[in-house]
Amino acid sequence: MARLRVFVNERPVDVARGATVRDAVAALDHGLADLLATAAAYVTDGVGRQVDARDPVGEAGGVFRVVVTARRAPAISKEALRRWPKAELHVHLDGSLRPATMLELAREQHVRLPADTPEGLTLALSVQGVHSLEEYLTKYQLTLAVMQTAAALERIAYEFVVDLAAEQVRYVEVRYSPLLHRPALTLTQAIEAPLRGIERAVRETGTRVGLIVCGIRTLPPAMSLELAQVAVGYRSAGVVGFDLAGAEHGHPAEDHRAAFALAVQHGLACTCHAGEGDGPASIHQALQSCGAQRIGHGTRLGEDPALLEYVVAQRIPLEMCLTSNLHTHAVPSLTTHPFRRYLEQGVVVTLNTDGRLVDGVTLTDEYHLAHTALGLGKDELVRVVLNACESAFLPEFERVALVARIQSELEKIA
Ligand SMILES: [Zn+2]
Q1: Which domain holds residue 367?
Q2: How far away, in angstroms, is 328 Cα from ligand 1 center?
């Protein structure tokens, strides 16, 4: 059969009579032809008019040019991201129970829950559709209802670490407030129980774990101080940090500064939820009055450019939570989330779940979301993983070792 010679990107290509423009492009370069199918490229004729790639090439001597509009790197699948080694710095134990465990504990303890199947419970606890941070926090009352025994706390902490290890989380700092387990448990009992569960899971999985205790903004500052006093006694037993959580607006962190000061004095690292339910002044207070070394969320940091500059210069890490911010209306939509902007401006940003159960996400999901919704590429995602490792509340030599280990693991995968 007679063949026609046409030109694609100045190169001669021979195609069968009746072949399409796309066939001619494919004869030169299959990769280019594939781009036409994804709208990442289009074809023009000799004078630059766009032609339909499905049209026949027409007469011999036809000239075509392929214009590539976007050379997209291949997407990273969620499965691939699940295999990436990761680290998480901001996740609440009382927001991360297995639904089946929660049902079992409720039956044992005769606690009434709004559903009696894991699916129903997941739905009832889901914070999708809540209207504010304050409403979001009410979901935690349900989980806390079954966490009032030492055995339950131990089991939940154990299962939590096992679940994170299964998605290749190599280092995690998990937080909760021992204050919310009184009067059923003393502060000592409420700290020792999860430490036991963690210790067992660490032995089995190899995942490193640090425990962060949280004062609560809406409780009296004297209670935060009391908690800090007890927590510092467990510094060598696995408690690595002190945090302040709870409704942010109208409950300033500086009221709790004595607790932060005591924690710092005894060598505990400090972080503080701020800039989530309130503006940048709240972040400023957490840093200046409380000595926080990291900020929980920090979503609204960008509203104060001078503070953002300070956070960049001081390399203060932000523990950011994309899905949770959507649920609490800290941002109106994912596409407007400042995570990517902060990363590009040099802020040490990290990705976290906040609550695996209540927010209905895994750490893998959050990385996948940053990839698909915010457009972070492989190098940027690797940077975020390393940011988390570099921001760990670990002694210097252990932190350096963690970073080196994760970096070499990532290099093997990439
Ligand atoms: Zn949080």
Answers
A1: 78-413
A2: 11
Is there a contact between 282 and 303 (Cβ–Cβ < 8 Å)? no
The yes-or-no answer on residue 159 being catalytic is: no
How many whole angstroms from 245 Cα to the centroid of ligand 1? 7
Mark which of 14, 41, 68 sits at the end of a domain: 68
> With contact defined as beta carbons under 8 Å apart, do 409 and 374 qualify?
no
State in Å: Cα 182 to ligand 1 middle: 21
**Ligand 1 centroid to residue 151 C-alpha, Å:** 24
**Interatomic CA distance for residues 1 and 299, integer angstroms:** 66
The domain that holds 44 is classified in CATH as 3.10.20.30
Co-location of 219 and 86 in the same domain: yes
Domain count, the chain: 2
Distance CA 297, CA 244 (A): 12
Q: For 112-135, how does the pLDDT look when each residue is reduced to its tens digit (9 = 90+)?
A: 999 999 999 888 888 777 777 777
The position carrying tokens 């408690």 is 239
The verdict on residue 12 lying in a domain is: yes
Q: Which position among 276, 303, 380, 396 bears the catalytic label?
A: 276
Note residues around ion ligand 1 (Cβ under 5 angstroms): 354
Question: How remote is the CA of residue 379 from the centroid of ligand 1, in Å?
Answer: 27
- Same domain? For 194 and 106 the reply is yes
CA–CA separation, 358 and 137 (whole Å): 10
One domain, residues 175 and 279: yes
CA atoms within 13 A on the CB side of 189: 13
90 and 36: one domain?
Answer: no
Residue 213 CA, ligand 1 centroid: distance in Å: 12
Q: Is residue 73 part of a domain?
A: no
Write the Ramachandran bin of 375: left for phi over 0, alpha for psi from -120 to 50, otherwise beta. left
**ω into 183 cis (within 30 of 0):** yes
* Helical spans, DSSP H, in 87-218: 99-109, 118-125, 133-145, 150-166, 187-205
> What digits encode the pLDDT tens for the residues 188-236?
999 999 999 999 999 999 999 999 999 999 999 999 999 999 999 999 9
How far, in Å, from the CA of 327 to the mean position of ligand 1? 12
Q: What's this model's pTM, rounded to 2 decimal places?
A: 0.83
- Flag whether 186 is in a domain: yes
Indicate whether 64 and 83 sit together in one domain.
no
Q: Any idea what DSSP says for residue 290?
A: T
Alpha helices, H only, 272-391: 280-288, 305-313, 322-327, 339-344, 363-372, 378-390
